[in-house]
């Protein structure tokens, strides 16, 4: 896919690539066997086009030179009736290639339409289309082909093309459906859905390019199979035997007992042509796979282009934003419940995974607020409901996940409020990326592997800013890459050509493409080393301060949240168990679960202490214990904890911070842990601290 961003960068730098660099992609075909396949295929195609015009004789004309071996007059000899074999081969090449390519085109189109649609749409559409494909797979292909061809003996090449296409499309559709089922769950497809791209666009712009290698292999294999099938049908006399093809030549050679009479020149050229063309197509397929799959390309191509682009970028002296002091954190803004500018409000949200005989509450009665310019951190162990909450906020959850209660309200800059859960598909498409975007975890999977970084940024702009020209989109792509600290020469880089940190910054650039008010970041530093994590966190803080967006930052790493967040919400078993200002949370965590999470991190200063983990494992959400879900693991639990589900209880704290809350019965009453607890619990609390 050619992208406008690359063109704009080259034009801006006013430097013309050399002819060698323009055709560098051809080096993907420089392997000897690939070139051999191209030459073989090209020779047959040329003879298929010009064959009837260069044939020395009429292929059906008889003469007295019967069964003559190859000679200067007849280069490939003659038949039993004196017909020239070379002329028959030249005419036959055109018909054989026409049938092979025509049948392959029809069968491949059917395979692509059925396979991609069934795999991506799912549900009833998948069942019906898969049933249709399975019916053709169950029926033996050869008998069905023979039966159909026997009813169309005089239909010529068109009839054979239809017969081969009808019997040959189902297997390719089955393969493409299986590949699509895998791809549709990848994060880059979710990202495309989040940008508001239409279903047809996602299928043909995101899923289809990832399967071109499979489609190309299927197409070339179908060409070979169609030529062999046509030759077989002609050999059996089930086609129009007066229409010359390689199979027809073999038919007349067999009828005339050419093998018994030793007339090898009659049947060897046709059989050899079929074998050579099949070999050439197979070799071409290797080269196509190497060109289409960026991972298989020679590293030298990308390296040299990157070096030249880097020189151009240095000459252009791209200006980036002001540098941030390393490790500096913006000053804390005191919380004012009256003047706070709430941009997102989650009220009593419930998200369940509904099965045939069970309902699993993944998010259970969660209420949160996010202010403009604030970072709301959400922490918890794996399975606590963090990612489910993120997908619910962005309306990207898919069955069996269902939002069964609550509301998610977005407040516009004009003060009007909209319930995200009640948005129509068109409203949601406009809302996503313009007002709210998401940065997925595992950027290698969130980025489309067969599209360049610049192309994926350009996709977002084309979907939501159709009024922008190609040059404007290209300039915005360059601006976004510079904004997140990626050199603009990487606009043509594929995801696998970037480091983990650069891929994650590229995902942040995608999230910032339309200047949203809210960015949901679902574990954006997962699988990155601590140095790269530090760089990503600093970049997020810098961009937030500069652009003023709000962030919902989801992770299981509390040390990151404490440095980055203004407010922290801790989730356990689908519920929020503690909500507090980040500094207050670090200084004085209230919930026993929060205390256990913080106790599992070593300190870099102060006296040495033994790290203490949390005993046990998170509960099975399908069979939650009665009362407090954390009670079986809590060292401070008492009898009422297994009887009562604790609500979020307001806690006493400094007036300048957000009002802290904890879902723990230890704080019933006036918010003090010493209130209304059995004897000995208060001492155990102090010991735990």
From TrEMBL:
Keywords: ATP-binding, Cell membrane, Membrane, Nucleotide-binding, Transmembrane, Transmembrane helix, Transport. CDD domains: ABC_NikE_OppD_transporters, TM_PBP2. GO terms for molecular function: ATP binding; ATP hydrolysis activity. Pfam families: ABC_tran, BPD_transp_1, oligo_HPY, OppC_N. It is found in: Cell membrane; Membrane. It comes from the Bacteria. It is a multi-pass membrane protein; Peripheral membrane protein. Residues 93-285 form the ABC transmembrane type-1 domain. The keyword Chloroplast does not apply. The chain crosses the membrane at residues 32-55, 95-121, 128-152, 158-176, 212-236, 264-288. GO terms for cellular component: plasma membrane. The keyword Amino-acid biosynthesis does not apply. PROSITE patterns: ABC_TM1, ABC_TRANSPORTER_1, ABC_TRANSPORTER_2. GO terms for biological process: peptide transport; transmembrane transport. Its main location: membrane. Residues 344-598 form the ABC transporter domain. Belongs to the ABC transporter superfamily. This is Oligopeptide/dipeptide ABC transporter ATP-binding protein. The lineage of its organism: Bacteria, Bacillati, Actinomycetota, Actinomycetes, Micrococcales.
């Amino acid at each position: 896919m050619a992208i406008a961003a690359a063109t704009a960068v080259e034009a801006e730098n006013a430097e013309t690539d050399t002819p060698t660099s323009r055709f560098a992609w051809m080096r993907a075909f420089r392997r000897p066997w690939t070139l051999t396949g191209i030459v073989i295929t090209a020779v047959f195609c040329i003879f298929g086009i010009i064959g009837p015009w260069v044939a020395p004789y009429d292929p059906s004309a008889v003469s007295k030179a019967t069964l003559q071996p190859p000679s200067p007059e007849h280069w490939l000899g003659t038949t039993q009736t004196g017909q020239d074999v070379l002329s028959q081969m030249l005419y036959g090449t055109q018909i054989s290639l026409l049938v092979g390519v025509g049948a392959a085109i029809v069968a491949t189109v059917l395979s692509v339409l059925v396979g991609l649609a069934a795999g991506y749409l799912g549900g009833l559409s998948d069942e019906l289309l898969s049933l249709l494909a399975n019916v053709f797979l169950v029926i033996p292909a050869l008998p069905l082909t023979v039966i159909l061809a026997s009813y169309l003996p005089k239909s010529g090449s068109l009839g054979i093309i239809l017969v081969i296409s009808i019997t040959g499309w189902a297997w390719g559709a089955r393969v493409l459906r299986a590949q699509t089922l895998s791809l549709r769950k990848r994060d880059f497809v979710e990202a495309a859905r989040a940008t508001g791209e239409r279903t047809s666009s996602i299928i043909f712009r995101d899923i289809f390019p990832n399967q071109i290698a499979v489609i190309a292999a299927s197409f070339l294999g179908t060409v070979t199979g169609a030529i062999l099938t046509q030759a077989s049908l002609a050999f059996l006399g089930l086609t129009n035997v007066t229409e010359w093809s390689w199979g027809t030549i073999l038919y007349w050679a067999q009828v005339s007992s050419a093998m018994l009479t030793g007339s090898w020149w009659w049947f060897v050229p046709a059989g050899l042509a079929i074998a050579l063309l099949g070999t050439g197509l197979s070799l071409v397929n290797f080269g196509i796979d190497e060109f289409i799959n960026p991972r298989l390309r020679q590293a030298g191509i990308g390296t040299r282009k990157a070096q030249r682009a880097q020189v151009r970028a240095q000459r252009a002296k791209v200006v980036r934003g002001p540098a941030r002091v390393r490790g500096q954190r913006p000053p804390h803004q005191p919380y004012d419940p009256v003047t706070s500018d709430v941009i997102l409000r989650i009220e009593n949200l419930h998200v369940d995974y509904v099965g045939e005989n069970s309902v699993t509450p993944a998010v259970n009665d969660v209420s949160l607020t996010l202010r403009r310019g604030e970072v709301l951190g959400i922490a918890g162990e794996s399975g606590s409901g963090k990612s489910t909450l993120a997908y619910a906020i962005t309306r990207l959850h898919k069955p069996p996940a269902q939002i069964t209660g609550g509301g998610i309200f977005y407040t516009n800059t004009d003060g009007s409020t909209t319930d995200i859960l009640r948005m129509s598909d068109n409203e949601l498409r406009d809302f996503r990326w313009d007002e709210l975007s998401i940065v997925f975890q595992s950027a290698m999977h969130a980025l489309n592997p067969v599209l360049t970084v610049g192309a994926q940024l350009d996709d977002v702009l084309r979907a939501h800013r159709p009024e922008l020209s190609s040059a404007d989109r290209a300039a915005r792509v360059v601006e976004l890459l510079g904004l997140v600290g990626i050199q603009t020469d990487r606009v043509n880089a594929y995801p696998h050509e970037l480091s983990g940190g650069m891929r994650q910054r590229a995902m942040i650039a995608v999230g910032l493409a339309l200047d949203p008010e809210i960015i949901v970041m679902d574990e954006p530093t997962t699988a990155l080393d601590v140095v790269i994590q530090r760089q990503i966190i600093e970049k997020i803080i810098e961009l937030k301060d500069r652009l003023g967006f709000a962030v919902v930052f989801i992770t299981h790493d509390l040390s990151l949240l404490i440095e980055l967040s203004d407010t922290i919400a801790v989730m356990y078993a689908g519920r929020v168990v503690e909500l507090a200002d980040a500094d207050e949370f670090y200084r004085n965590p209230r919930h026993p679960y929060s205390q256990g999470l913080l106790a599992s991190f070593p300190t870099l200063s102060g006296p040495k202490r033994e790290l203490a983990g949390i005993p046990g494992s998170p509960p099975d959400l399908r069979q939650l214990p009665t009362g407090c879900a954390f009670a079986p693991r809590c060292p401070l639990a008492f009898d009422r904890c297994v009887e009562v589900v604790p609500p979020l209880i307001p806690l006493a704290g400094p007036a300048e911070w957000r009002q802290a809350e904890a879902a723990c019965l230890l704080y019933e009453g006036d918010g003090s842990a010493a209130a209304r607890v059995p004897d000995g619990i208060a001492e155990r609390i102090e010991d735990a601290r």
